[in-house]
Amino acid sequence: MQDNLYNLAFERSILSSIVFEPSQFDELSVALKQDDFYLPAHKDIYSTMLLLLQKDQPIDEEFIKKELIKIKKFDEQVLLEILSANPISNTKAYVDEIKDKSLKRHLLTLTTEIKRVTVEEELPSAEVIDIVEKKLYEITQDNQTSDFKDSPKMTFDTMEYIKEMKARGNSVLVGVDTGFNELNKMTTGFGKGDLVIIAARPAMGKTSFILNTVNSLIMNGKGVAFFSLEMPAEQLMLRLLSIQTSIPLQKLRVGDMNDDQWSSLNGAIDRMNSAKLFVDDQGSININQLRSKLRKLKNQHPEIEIAVIDYLQIMQGVGNQDRHLQVSEISRGLKMLARELEMPVVALSQLNRGLESRNDKRPMLSDIRESGSIEQDADIILFVYRDDVYLYKEEKEREKAAKAEGKEFVSEYVEKEEEDAEIIIGKQRNGPTGHVKLVFQKKLTRFVDAPAYSAGVETVYENIDTRSANIDVGVPQIDMPAL
């Protein structure tokens, strides 16, 4: 049992190697932490070595002894055992073994922690799961080490990437298909490891927008994971069926369809039965739970290419932190998860209502709730905007005011089945910002490309900001993956 949890001979050999060959300590200090050592005296000696390294002092017997005496932790017998141990040349194998045993000890400690919070403190099961998820994530993160990549490695990986892009026939689309031609051209798709934020005020259609992307992907055999915190899975399915069949959503909800529509619906149901769509509609989830679920799902279904969270502000925080700190933890956690799983993570977000007091109600980055951390972590931020939503709201307010004054009201607003819509690219780490024109079909809750683009007419981008990106308008930008 003890041999499985620690190896004192290995610990002595590593410490001895540092004393006799201090030049290798820079590399070892990145891989090993103080807690990776089992024996407390070994921890003290390693900690002292780190202190000497920071002070740029010699890491030898005399200086180590001096520092240990100063903190009253000097054990002459232990230091003699280390100095008498044989230094090793292949330190990597020893480091890997020490870290493996350290990980096992941490896992064993976690089992004790689980027993304590479950039995002794009698915490609710949901809180126990949160604690375990967080501790397990911390353990795995602490156990991961990575080295610098040298130029030959980066050059090779970059050339392989360029060859892969060339094999696609110089396609504008590099990342995951957004489902919209012009948006693909502006963004080259959602890239691997990207955190994409889609933000809007209520009723603008941010869920409808991302469902168009989801539908395009699953119809092309791609896998999608969807965390629906706002609506049940059945409502999402109704919207997808409306998008596919062009049957108005209200008719689907009440089953009011003619024979042709029933036939179209049955065909769509058959297609959806084989779709690789996975929906979690639990409605209450924190970043640790989401991370755990998505990792497990990705391992079981490697074909999943994108994860969607609807929406970010509903996600629960971990612990009793201030809400803005919780949101910072959530947004950073989503970004790290996107990089780890090498796929885009799309999170929907609400906007502050303060923008509605402006004359121009088009959103900007500062309108995102708890915007600081979200704006910083996101690679792409898209705003969904429909001017008709505000025109209709203003018309209703005028009608209400006229009735209150006893005046006759004549409506000037003409309700449309298809409304102009804009996708505002507020931030793009590897490309231009600007506006993309779409059309929103209200009865189908469906966005489609604007007619000019659908007909093959080259669209002129609006308000493109290329200064920060240092790029030419109209030239597809390639989002290089992490090497």
Primary descriptors:
ten-stranded mixed β-sheet, DNAb Helicase, Chain A, 50% helix, alpha/beta, 19 helices, disordered C terminus, 483 residues, Rossmann fold
Describe this structure in words.
- Strands 1, 2, 3, 4, 5, 6, 7, 8, 9 and 10 form a 10-stranded mixed β-sheet that branches.
- The protein folds into 2 domains: 2-142, DNAb Helicase, Chain A (Orthogonal Bundle); 176-235 and 268-385 and 416-465, P-loop containing nucleotide triphosphate hydrolases (Rossmann fold), CATH 3.40.50.
- The radius of gyration is 29 Å and the shape is elongated.
- It has 19 helices and 10 strands.
- Helix content is 50%, strand content 13%.
- The model is unreliable at 454-483 (pLDDT under 50).
- The protein has 483 residues and is of the alpha/beta class.
- Helix 2 crosses helix 6 (76-84), helix 2 packs across helix 7 and helix 11 (206-219) crosses helix 12.
- The relative contact order is 0.10.
- It catalyses: ATP + H2O = ADP + phosphate + H(+).
